[in-house]
């Protein structure tokens, strides 16, 4: 059934362009798909970077109105004060307590009637919560991960003397997450697994809107099975990606090189730490950083390695590698939410020795890798097109419209 065009007020705590992370890829492609389906979108963003001409040009075809407000610096005294003394978790305080954003949101709600108000991330709700309650406005909350479960990758890097603060912030995160889930009229998760976990915090059954892949954009990729290059892509402002690379360098790659001395590790992505080049200066590592055209580097690679031990949700970088027919070696966590058949569309390894053996076997048997890649591309094409994801989001909108009265959750009542 085709849904009539909706007037959507969509909020984000970052700009979805340029695409430097899985979250931004999801946001941009869903915006595009929903606009193509006829919906009228006003996008309200709080961003640490300005909306320059490139951003404006990328979003203009899909967004009727783009409103971008600056986010306070992390070193702003108000941010530091809130981070230390607020009852809210660190990430929420960084993105919250933004009076200008609250005023702009209130003006938008007053200006017109919206069919859907969509808030991305539980940590992004704080500036809008009071206004939503006052106006008894229903809203959808989209949660990309179960945020309270990401602590192991983040807090494990804190020095020993800060561990009590880490435990305190984890406690704040769990409490805020439960608070937000109970306030939303409808919760959207990215995977069935996340939906089950979030359902324990809310009386409303979460909807699942999965991640997708640009099927046409990756269709031209032909991996180079003889290149001996093993690829990883990530946003290194995200702690699970940092952990993945560091674990790979410390535990996995020494074992790979024992089996396959000529293998090369290609590490791409936004905010790549400069210290890694000094810490691991081996010439067989290519520290490329951000690449503006992922299919090019995929075409130069033989294998995609996903040594992810934390994160939740589904991993867009892995999904895009599968769409590009790159043979994938991943932990179970790296394939979460994708429904991939181990041994057919990817190889699964949850310890360093098994991961090294799997990578070496694919480098030694490029035809086997090519066959696995073809099966993976067929699977992703059939199940993870962005238009299918947009239809899932429309299903959530229809469920929201079934509420008898707007804003029931903000009054402590459940949406039917």
What does this structure look like?
- It is a single chain.
- The chain is 44% helix and 14% strand.
- The protein has 416 residues and is α/β, with parallel strands linked by helices.
- It folds into 2 domains: 7-212 and 386-411, Rossmann fold; 215-383, Glycogen Phosphorylase B (Rossmann fold, 3-Layer(aba) Sandwich), CATH 3.40.50.2000.
- The strands form 2 sheets. Strands 3-2-1-4-5-6-7 form a 7-stranded parallel β-sheet, sandwiched between helices.
- The chain is globular, with a radius of gyration of 22 Å.
- 48% of the residues are buried.
Write the layout of secondary structure elements.
Elements: E1 7-12, H1 22-36, E2 40-47, H2 53-59, E3 65-70, H3 77-85, H4 90-95, H5 99-111, E4 116-120, H6 126-135, E5 140-142, H7 151-155, H8 163-183, E6 186-189, H9 192-199, E7 207-208, H10 215-218, E8 229-233, H11 239-259, E9 264-268, H12 275-279, E10 285-289, H13 294-299, E11 303-306, H14 316-323, E12 328-330, E13 347-348, H15 352-364, H16 366-383, H17 386-401
Parallel strand pairs: 1-2, 1-4, 2-3, 4-5, 5-6, 6-7, 8-9, 8-11, 9-10, 11-12, 12-13
Helix pairs in contact: 1-17, 5-6, 11-15
**Widest sheet, order of strands:** 3-2-1-4-5-6-7
Whole-number radius of gyration?
A: 22 Å
Amino- and carboxy-terminal Cα gap: 21 Å
Low-confidence stretches: 410-414
CATH class of the largest domain: Alpha Beta
Mean pLDDT: 91
Shape: globular
How many domains in all? 2
Classification by helices and strands: alpha/beta
Largest β sheet strand count, sense and barrel closure:
7 strands, parallel
CATH topology of the largest domain: Rossmann fold
Please provide the count of β strands.
13
CATH superfamily of the largest domain: Glycogen Phosphorylase B
Topology as a string of helices (H) and strands (E): EHEHEHHHEHEHHEHEHEHEHEHEHEEHHH
Share in helix: 40-55%
Strand % is 5-15%
Which architecture of the largest domain per CATH? 3-Layer(aba) Sandwich
The number of helical runs is 17
